[in-house]
Amino acid sequence: MDAASAAELLARMFGEGHGLACRLDGNVVELPDAGLRVAVDTPDLQPNGVIVRVPIGVNHPAWGDVFAWDQAVGVGGDDRHPVAAAAYEWLHHVFPVFAAYALPGHELAANVHTETRNDGRRPARIHYGPIAIRNFGGLGEVTQRAVADRSPTMVVAERLFDGYALPDRPLWWYTFAARMPDGPIEEVTLVNGDGGDSLRGISDHLPWEGHGSVKSWALLVPGPMMPFTQPPVG
Prior knowledge:
- It is globular, with a radius of gyration of 19 Å.
- The longest helix is centred in the N-terminal third of the chain and has 16 residues, at 3-18.
- The protein contains five helices and 13 strands.
- Strands 7, 8, 9, 10, 11, 12 and 13 form a seven-stranded antiparallel sheet that branches. Strands 1, 2, 3, 4, 5 and 6 form a six-stranded antiparallel sheet that branches.
- Strand 11 and strand 12 (193-194) form a beta hairpin.
- The N and C termini lie far apart (73 Å).
- By secondary structure, the chain is α+β, with helices and mostly antiparallel strands.
């Protein structure tokens, strides 16, 4: 399946599955009611023919020409094409944070947690998307509850508000953390790039009583600058 075919499949999920008006332009799905554009790049099918990675990016005029990219992973089986599985997972675990921003009240944003924080200069709304948890053995309710209470993605937000000045445009990031038999894995991707050393250890607080992985997205939308008030003299 090429990029255009994958985009057509995603467009059907948007339209037929969730009632969103959309236009298809090659490998780009336009959602006019939301002002969003979703680009799909060439799916990368693994040699086993069962697992695929599909690059999918979201764009909004508020952040210029930049797309927020993710590598959606799909596993085929039971007569389901792996690209269809990847598109479905992306639609329900990545897109919701952008739906909360551009389509508030839509069903795709129903499982997004939104909070307001302030860095002393300006407020910001942060949309935390649904958390994708994979259990590879022994990952029980203790870890899952801890993830729900304070996910690695939330820890990134805490650190961004500790010593960083909020930018004028939205920020997006996702975290991937895992405990595997051969050791821990941790990734922070901030605005399509490596989050750097200051964002390491964002999953150390989790109990990790087994093996598994946790991935989630967030979108930070800064508000207007607060007016500066000169303190009275004397």
